[in-house]
Amino acid sequence: MNQPVARTRIQRKNIKLISDAALSVFSANGFRGATVDQIAREANLSKPNLLYYFPTKEAIHRHLLSTLMDTWLDPLRDVDPAGEPLDEILTYLQRKLQMSRDHPRESRLFANEILQGAPHILDLLASDLKDLVDDKAALITTWMNSGRIARADPYHLIFSIWSLTQHYADYDVQIHAILGPKKPDPFPEAETYLTEMFTRMLTPP
User: Fewer CB atoms inside 10 A, N or C side of the chain?
Assistant: First the structure.
């Protein structure tokens, strides 16, 4: 059985350079508007050097998205069945909001892929993502059935956390245009508002 070849330090460094450059180019231009030449320039690598690691623009995009999805799903994986249900859900909400604050380009990249019909990661959505969400939805249902949190559709609860937190990354320009310069950082108030909203919704009557 063939063992995967270990990458050298230089190879790991160049893959990170390409990934960081691709994130900037794809998030600014979308997949269709981005080119390998742009990514190579952003990474300060020659085009042949870049193509040594990734033979096509599609390969770069898929690598970036699959890596992003793994990171993006960590907070959901960390929801602890042994924890206090409301605390676990609120912690998940707060971590998702923090990711939108700290990684807006990644959020927009993922959103653009979904809006295009997820041509490069549809298989991951239908397998890894679905399996994880099914597992956490079943856990939330167990908590609801035992009366530890109020009843709500567990899938739409997860969907609403996604949309309400990632909105602050994907619609950053709109938010700042409306709030104006007196409120340059919307995240503290957003966290307070969303925490109070989900606490009221999920606290058992």
Answer: N
Helices (H) and strands (E) in the chain, counts: 11, 0
User: DSSP code of 184?
Assistant: S
In this structure, are residues 88 and 79 in contact, taking their beta carbons and an 8 Å threshold? yes
Residue 75 · residue 99 · CB < 8 Å: yes
Report which of residues 100 and 27 the model is more confident about: 100
For residues 87 and 138, membership in a common domain is answered with yes
pLDDT in tens, 150-189: 999 999 999 999 999 999 999 999 999 999 998 899 999 9
Q: What pTM, to 2 d.p., does this model score?
A: 0.85
Q: Which domain holds residue 144?
A: 61-202
Output the DSSP codes for 93-142.
Answer: HHHHHHHHHH-HHHHHHHHHHHHTT-TTTHHHIIIIIHHHHHHHHHHHHH
